[in-house]
Known about the structure:
Oligomer: single chain
Structural class: alpha+beta
Number of strands: 17
Number of helices: 15
CATH superfamily of the largest domain: GAF domain
Strand content: 15-25%
Shape: elongated
Strand order of the largest sheet: 8-7-6-11-10-9
Low-confidence stretches: none
Amino acid sequence: MRTNEDQPAQIANQDSSTVELGIKKGEERFRSLFENSIDAVLLSTPDGTIEAANPAACRLFGRSVEEICSIGGFGLVDPSDSRLHSLLEERERTGRFRGELFYKRKDGSTFLGEVSSAFYQDLSGATKAAVIIRDVTDRKRVEDTLRDITEGTAGSTGDEFFRSLVKHLAHALQARYSFVAECTDETKKNVRMLAFWQGEDFGNNIEFPLGGTPCQAVIQGNACSYPERLQVLFPEDEGLVTLGAQSYAGVPLINEAGNILGHLVVMDDKPRVFSEQAFSFLRIFATRAGAELERKRAGDALSKSQECLRTLLDINNAIVTKLTREELFTAISEVLARIIKFDRLALAMYDPESDVLRLVTYAGPYRRDDYTPIGRVLDLNDSPAGRAFLNQKLVLRRDLELERQTSSEERAYGHGFRSLCALPLTVRGRRIGAITVGSLAKDQYSEAAAEFLIEVANQVAIAVDNMKSYEEITALNATIGATSSFGLTARTR
Length: 493
């Protein structure tokens, strides 16, 4: 039977057991953390002698625990890195440090490590040091790449920005080619390069159809990667053969409204897998490029709007200063050429007696006289000009290869024209004729330009009406002059 005198010894024994159990559990937790940490952990003496290394440290340095302990902390650090001594001095003063050092693996390769260390007391009361190392080479490379591209494009806008972007992006991703392109219209069937880096210098900014190219899927909204056999995968894309392109990565330029504006691409002349980091860079700078493209388009639209106003003003001036048919139409043609691309600009006047339109003059670089010569009759129901005249609406043919509806359009297509736009001429509610602009390139005219073209047609109608009045007055004066001359001659006889 136990007495009360035995209780202190029992309590002491229980406390000792509890402490030992707590210490044991603490050691187990520490051992578990030490063994399973994803970061390299080294336990050492203050002078750098390593006493333990976890599995992550062995994987990081490519060495066994025995090898790591044998060479010590100083043997793991790249000897060319002078920062180690200042970090050790900081730990001596404060008991801890955090910084970056270059370390050396067993195979001789080096890596940048983010390192932290602190002193602690072990169970015996001896001072030890814990060192935690994380390989940040990839993270640093990402940061450096982002910084290089950002600094390379900082302060530049418009065309300069796009050129700087593709050059620095190609260098950063170590790709031979890089380009950024915009969709030419709402159909998203063609793109036009804004800048193209081709390895050693900038290439020409070309426009090309998307069909049969790796870019087609990107413009549909997909981030695409083709690590090899690029020319085999897209045999219709002759440009890939010319460039010797073997691999490709591209992402779309998407604005805040979700509209696809174009795409950003890198290509290489050898097979390669573009990493997720590479795609992260592409997405980041595609967003920046998309914002810059929208800013550029807004600026271009403003400039074009101002140019449109100047064009209308110049046509107004032509109304006053150019009264003969040839002078007036030449002036109008020169003014319109600043805003609208055309190869032929034709003016047809309404002949009420025959109820047809007759071509009275034309301008532009396409000068073949056998195509709609002066005096040609244009049927009101069988020509774009006639339909524009009858319906008092703009007639637009973006692609004559697909949209020919009249014999007049068949003739235009046969002469190489691929797009046209016909506009009615109306003055004070009276229809007087129509003008037609035609281009040898398709998709030259769009609904977006319709409002301006209608304004142009209204101004041209006034100018043509004034021209007709001037011609009638000139003819009347000639008739009066001839009559007066005849009367004078008769009296003198």
